[in-house]
Amino acid sequence: MPSATSPDPFGEGLTAATVRICDAVTAVSASNPVVVIDGRSGAGKSSLAARVARAWPLSTPVQLLALDSLYPGWDGLERGADIARENVLRPHGRGLIGIWRRWDWELGEEAEAHAVDPALGLIVEGCGALTLASAALADVTVWVDGPSASRRQRALDRDGDGFRRHWDMWAAQEDAHIMRHEPQRLARVSVLTP
Question: Which of 30, 137, 187, 191 has the smallest set of CB atoms within 10 Å of its CB?
Answer without folding.
Answer: 30
